[in-house]
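Field log, afternoon session.

UNIT: design team B
ACTIVITY: writing a sequence onto a fixed backbone
BACKBONE:
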């Protein structure tokens, strides 16, 4: 029984007058099918290898850029290349299936074109049936290609606050303050708010009456500030910086400004530091009240704060004033210097 066959027009056009064409023409259909599968798998393997190597190189370079090791997730480029690999792999095997149908059933290239064009119809039908998935993927690709967020950013994604670990095609993975892994569907991300990577500045302005010993009051403020930092080091991410005594003229009182760097979304300064400080201040002034310690939040330290800290060096013992000024400059200039003030009920 003759196992050979006349090649379809499609393959005749591709391999015409070539050694490959002669081999193809004289080989059985089972060999044709195996060759198509082998070529498809080989191309898929090469694409996967390139993706794996590029992801490994990128992850190594990302680790070097982040010596603190807080970025454990995948960079956006890795996710984007995964999308490309998946799309190309699907196209390869879809094409291979069409070629196998042509070989097995001796179909013409016109039928193959019809088969390939059916992919558009199938994709349209799937897009209607899987609208949520399509929205996730479209939003995910938008986040990957844009500079809205990146891996390692501390963000507020429509009410979810945490550090971005993975920007995927369906979900964005965020680690919150409680070390919980939160997977936010991309279609639910309506607003993106980015915080400075090294924390948010919180300022407590402690009002001081001029009739009391200013040095004694400043020392008391220092002790309370460092005590709260020692107790809540996971929320207050840097040593509190205590400024000098400043006049509030023509108001007639003085104040000391304490700068904290905290994890975004936390209210520890109002709930822990202010009550502790007010209780301590009552030992000096029994009439001292909560309203005398307003708390404000800003993304960037003001020029006045930098100048005061650099001039006086009123920090915890052993601190370096220049290092403090450098820390104040770490906040990205692109971040707006917005402020939110909270005052206790009087």
């Amino acid at each position: 029984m003759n196992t050979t066959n006349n090649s379809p027009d499609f393959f005749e056009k591709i391999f015409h007058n070539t050694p490959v064409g002669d081999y193809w023409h004289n080989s059985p259909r089972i060999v044709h099918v195996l060759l198509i599968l082998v070529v498809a798998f080989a191309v898929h393997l090469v694409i996967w290898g390139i993706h794996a190597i590029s992801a490994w190189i990128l992850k190594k370079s990302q680790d070097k850029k982040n010596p603190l090791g807080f970025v454990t997730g995948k960079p956006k480029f890795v996710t984007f290349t995964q999308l490309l690999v998946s799309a190309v792999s699907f196209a390869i095997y879809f094409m291979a299936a069409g070629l196998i149908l042509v070989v097995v059933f001796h179909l013409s290239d016109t039928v193959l074109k019809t088969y390939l064009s059916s992919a558009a119809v199938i994709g349209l039908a799937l897009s209607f049936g899987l609208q949520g998935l399509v929205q996730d993927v479209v939003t995910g690709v938008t986040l990957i290609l844009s500079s809205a967020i990146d891996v390692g950013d501390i963000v507020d994604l429509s009410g979810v606050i945490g550090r971005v670990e993975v920007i995927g095609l369906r979900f964005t993975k965020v680690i919150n303050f409680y070390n919980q892994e939160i997977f936010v569907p991309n279609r639910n991300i309506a607003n993106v708010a980015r915080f400075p990577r090294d924390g948010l500045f919180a300022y407590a302005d402690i009002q001081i009456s001029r009739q009391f010993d200013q040095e004694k009051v400043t020392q008391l403020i220092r002790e309370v500030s460092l005590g709260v930092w020692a107790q809540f080091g996971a929320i207050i991410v840097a040593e509190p910086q205590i400024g000098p005594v400043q006049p509030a003229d023509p108001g007639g009182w003085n104040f000391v400004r304490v700068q904290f760097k905290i994890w975004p979304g936390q209210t520890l300064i109002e709930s822990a530091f202010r009550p502790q400080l007010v209780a301590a201040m009552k030992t000096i002034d029994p009439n001292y009240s909560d309203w005398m310690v307003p708390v404000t939040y800003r993304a960037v330290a003001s020029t006045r704060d930098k100048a005061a800290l650099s001039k006086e060096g009123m920090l915890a013992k052993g601190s370096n004033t220049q290092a403090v000024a450098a820390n104040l400059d770490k906040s990205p200039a692109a971040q707006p210097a917005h402020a939110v003030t909270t005052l206790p009920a009087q």
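LOG NOTE: The longest helix spans residues 29-65.
NEXT ACTIVITY: expression trials, pending approval
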